[in-house]
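Reminder: ligand-aware prediction takes two inputs, not one.
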Amino acid sequence: MARRLGESFWGDLYGLVRAVARAMKVTLINLIRRPVTVHYPDKTRAYPDRFRGLLALTYDKETGEENCIGCRLCEYICPPQVIKVEMLKAEKRNFAKTFTLELYACEFCELCVQVCPTDAIIMMKSFDLATSDRRELLLDKDRLHALGLQFEPSWATGNRLRDMQAPPKAAKAEVKRKGEAKESGE
Ligand code: SF4
Ligand code: SF4
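Here is what comes back for the chain with iron/sulfur cluster:
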């Protein structure tokens, strides 16, 4: 009996030493490995072109006018209903009288960008809006425009996304030809 107890003690000790040695090996490997993190915000990483970051509103580069025409398509498509737009009717074109976006509840699904007919709402290559106060993430029109000027835009705009998803031109032409042939009874 005494012999069995002694055996189990040395066996346990051996197991313990092996486990500590294995853990120390992992620690040593990680001590000399190059870090995978960067010291944000002093150092930033290059984001991919299709990065889905902060949402922003844009101005027309040529005229300097707001691109948003207040059509409310983004409001209707938004799954969590975080966008609210009021349209302002004007003589030549319409505008957004008010535009609010509750970024704290946004799903970053990009649907609002996809439906926008005038490329007025886009996503930026940044998520740099951390705050401890939720109210700061309720973005109004001015803040959304300011974000559009502050950060680099991502690739996606409504027109680009729709072009990308449209059927190839040859397929479109074939559909049109078949439609015309059907109409003329060929
Ligand atoms: S990205 Fe999606 S969830 Fe966020 S505002 Fe646009 S439609 Fe709404
Ligand atoms: S951002 Fe685009 S989709 Fe939304 S209201 Fe303005 S024009 Fe319409």
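The radius of gyration is 29 Å. The mean pLDDT is 91. We will return to this case in the review session.
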